[in-house]
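Example record for the data management plan.
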Amino acid sequence: MKLLRLSVLLAVVLAPAMAWADPIEGEWKTADTSLATIKGCGDQFCIVMKTGDWPGKQIGRLKASGKGIYAGTVTDPRDEKTYSGRAMLNGNTLKLTGCALKIFCQTEVWQRR
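Corresponding structural encoding:
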């Protein structure tokens, strides 16, 4: 009986925290098969490389701007240039786009791991 009470208590306490997690948060496989982590940092979401040539490097900051839509900046770790960025989340697929001057854009498709 004590185990049942403890299980119910844990479910009640943990359920709201799990519900508050934003869908974009998690681990993502990038276009070059490296892994990146997206997690909350303040009122935004930070994109940090987990594997590949730049582990630990933050390559972006995004803020929710609509259902499944995020906007902010992305940095190309190869040359350290920062671009206007946006991301569109559809299930387990994330389309991440970086643009220079809003006309020269490049998009990568990432998959949730």
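Summary line stored alongside the record: The radius of gyration is 17 Å.
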